[in-house]
Write a structure and sequence with these properties.
Helix content is 38%, strand content 16%. It is of the alpha/beta class. The chain folds into five domains: 1-84, no CATH class; 92-136 and 163-273, Dna Topoisomerase Vi A Subunit, Chain: A, domain 2, CATH 3.40.1360.10; 275-374, no CATH class; 459-697, P-loop containing nucleotide triphosphate hydrolases (Rossmann fold), CATH 3.40.50; 720-801. Helix 5 runs parallel beside helix 8, helix 11 crosses helix 13 and helix 17 runs parallel beside helix 21 (640-647).
Amino acid sequence: MTLTVVGGSGSSKEFMDGDLMSSGLTVSDVSARTIENSERALTNTPYSMPGYVLPYFDITGRLKPFYRVKLADRDTKYRQPTDSLNHIYFPRGLASLLERSRYVIITEGEKKAALAVKLGFPTCALGGIYSWRNRTLTLSGDAALTKANNSLQVKLPAADAHPHEEFDSPVAVGFTELLDTIIAKSLQVLILFDSGPDGVEPEVQRAAANLGYELRFRGVPFERIRQCILPNEASPPMTKVGLDDFLLQQGDLAFRELTGQVLEARTAFPQHPNVREYVNRKLQRTKISRKELQGLAMAILCDLDTRGIRLRDPSGLTYYFDRPSKRLLLSAWANGRDPQYDAPFTQYLYREYGISLADSRLLVWLGTQFSGENPIEEVSPQRVIARVSQDDDCIYYQISDSEFAEVNGNGTTGGIKIHDNGTANILFDSDQCEPLNKRTLLAEFARQNAEENLTLPCYWANALSQVRLRDRDKSRITTALLYYLSPWLHRWRGLQLPVELVVGESGSGKSTLCELRLGILTGRPYLRNSPSELRDWYASIAATGGLLITDNVQLRDAALRQKMSDELCRITTESEPYIEQRRLYTNVGLLRIPARCTFAFTSIAQPFVNADLLQRAWILELDKSIDQGDDGVIRYDSDWRQAQLAKYGGREAWVAHHLVVVHRFLRLARTQWSSTYSAKHRLINFEQALHLMAQVFGIPYTWMPDFLVSKTDDAISEADWVLEGLQAFAVEHATPALRGKRFRINLISEWCAEQEEYAKCDMLVNPRRLGKYLSAHKSSVLHMTGIGEAGKESNRLAYSIRGKPIPPRTL
């Protein structure tokens, strides 16, 4: 509509009707009236300028003694009475909408708010993008005002013990009422300013961010402060799109859909257009108020939420997932102590915002807001290897901080996919492994998996043939198959993997073998030190994914050895294993941290002797003397680990080999896996998994179940002096003449007392103590020795040799 500006009230009436109509309004919608001479005088409006008056109402709809005039002047469109304060514009009808709404919109311009309310959207308006605040401070009449040194000084009345709450940052009239309503009704706040051709202009966006900071400072929760950005999709783009433009062009249904998307978004706090400049400009000042520090921290937090997600794990540690880099970073303050200079998140804050540990006051606020402001989501970070569930036939392997490989049993080709970190609800922690070359990995996988019908070479069997194993036959093959299962298929379909005990004298190659495994798995051949207390070991479990190897374990502390043994038994066989710790600074709070790694220990002598643990263990014995030359000298290959990696093409080739094996195992399991498999080994599905893995390599399997049992029996009898003595007794007395004959326990004690090997074992030579042992270990004793209860004689228990005893192991 083209308007002709002429003088007189008639032209004001014409201008008012046309201007309101262009925004979809009528005079009654806003109670407008043409401008009068008194209003021209109070607003310094020329008498020849057409215009009209927009009266203001309070939030309940009552008329206020304030107004603004809309003029036909293109340079100064709005004016208000001279020296008057800024007011919030509440359209008529807003109060009734707020009674049934869950949000309120704050926009710029009275007509936009009035049209939105007319169409059923609860909206209030600012006179300008910064008009939510006032630059004029009003004090009580008793305040004294003086002028000195070219500055104004205000002395507050003696009755005022504290300055007015708005003294530091006076806000527009009506802002406090709006704020009280927002908080009382738990309303969401949608900040909606005009959009330009390239979105919201930087200065307008800066104003939206500052309004958001003020609302948060005054008590509105972070997650309830949101910005709604109007799309400017016209071709060519419009100079600006306001709320009234969108409603008139797109309709109320489109706007309802847009607001619904904003309200359902995870976070939509208005983002400052240049956070780094905003933060560092204010930090240059020598004195920064508490409110300003909160605002700076809020600006950074909002920017962090725009770029990624704040997360918290079950133990209370906080993380930040950076979407651009796809990295999950442990927050700088997660350990409850001062942040570290070289921590990834500390470096991230410096790179993105220019802040460092020297800005301690700001970091304190940021750390508090990071975990205290919603939304912060729950996460259970994965490390190195992950599964979605026990029944999921996919294994996820971390190849870098930002990517992971998915291996499945699909098809004759493929079987591997590379995903960005954070895909499929899988989040891998950062700094857990050295990155792999993705292209090389995929090429190696395709090459090794190209001929499906050919038997795969067993890299680990070849590598173990060069290790000083005491048994280079069955132990070597079983260990090789175990290394393809552990930790790659840990807990797949409930698979329980054994605790690995690598035993041998110093220099036998235990650590080098373990370093090779970790070098392949993570690229970091770092072995853990033997723990001095249980919580040190717990910390290692919580921070480790894949495989936790503890080197040179001695455990002279019997109490610590027993506690670790008990925990290993529990973690190995629980369906969802965890460790439990007391929360810091509390007496009753407990943390339950998932335990997702398998365990290996190296030691000179057997570190654990409990039968319960040994039944859950795989013991690999190394003998240093095997490679002793004719001259009695043992020679060491200092480059053995690197040579084994290079032999097959480096770490990428080794990892690709493991992934191909997993792929073929999963394919085979689809047809060969049996949920009713009857195993001799106590660990769930371990024996069957070895069976399938042997089929992957074309290795005969029939001997393996009995071999597993015999290895366990040998370990138990070797660690248990009493059981070893009972075995020796049973072997000597299992003659045809004595088999099945009943005897009393005294016969065993008397025989042991006569044997040099067992005469000093109090448990064996004392009938009463031996009786208690036999009663507590009935099943194990019967299995290992054939000795079982055979009724009573003279009211005392009798025993007999009912089965074939297993001879005690001879070294």
